[in-house]
Amino acid sequence: MDNLQDRPGLGILLRILSGVLFTGMLVCIKAVSDAVPVGQSVFFRSLFALLPIVVFLMIRREFPRGLATRRPLGHALRSGLGAAAMFASFAAVALLPVAEATLLAQLTPVFMAVGGVLLLGEKFSFYRAGAIVLALAGMAVLVLPGLDASAESGQMTGYALGALSALLTAGALLTVRRISRTETAASIAFYFILVSALAGLATLPLGWAALDPKAFGLLVLSGLFGGAAHIAMTLALRYAEASRLAPFEYIALVWPVMADWVLFGIPVSGGFVLALPLMLSGVALAAMEGRRFRHLFQR
């Protein structure tokens, strides 16, 4: 990316905007989660995310030229893992407050640090060890206090799905690190969204809900918000390094907390407040090794 550090202020503003948009996407999904199956939500979110992304790629003159690929199997693996992560994420947000589901997504860089050691032969450093310890401590603080009380509500299932989504996303992004040597960001993003839409469509025989205008509108918005969040993060990482953007993960978690409180009447839990600094400190340690998480926007 050219001029990476020329406009860090703009990069920070775009990172904050991407957090707002991503929260908007999850709010829409949670609002319809009682009536709309996960697969149907994944389909509509992916289908309508294609619109802003294709427009963006056309403006950059990367569509359709940028979709050419020399590694179709690599795209298949990345897109399959990403689609599975989306299914798990949407299932988690149906069971959890938006803030807790978003916090669990922050485990992705930590899982990437572990995956880099196990799968790519990278060095197991002090930073990675610290990231793992802090992330596990944060998970314990979030999950253990409500272990007994959450059994009937499905909260523990939500925690497991949220962690699984972060793990699958980490696997997808590790794949991105391998294929990005020959593949464009446009092709990686486009095929991920296309495969996710097809995976969601494949659940049609399992039974989809009849959508009223409100539910349909929310699903359309979820896709538009998701696609726009992708673009905002892309541009943020063009103008500012990931290390500069990392502190603003705290701000990105303000919006889900506000959404839970204002829209769903869910107060922030004590476990969330205690887990937040632990998990984000782990994310910061994972990022301090200088690895640039340029594709974290592809969720």
Automatic annotation (TrEMBL):
Pfam families: EamA
Regions annotated as coiled coil: none
Intracellular or extracellular location(s): Membrane
Organism domain of life: Bacteria
Membrane topology, from the record: Multi-pass membrane protein
InterPro entries the record matches: EamA_dom (IPR000620), EmrE-like (IPR037185)
Transmembrane regions listed in the UniProt entry: 12-32, 38-59, 80-97, 103-120, 127-147, 159-176, 188-209, 215-236, 248-266, 272-290
UniProtKB keywords: Membrane, Transmembrane, Transmembrane helix
Domain EamA: 10-143, 157-286
GO-annotated cellular components: membrane
Protein name per Swiss-Prot or TrEMBL: EamA domain-containing membrane protein RarD
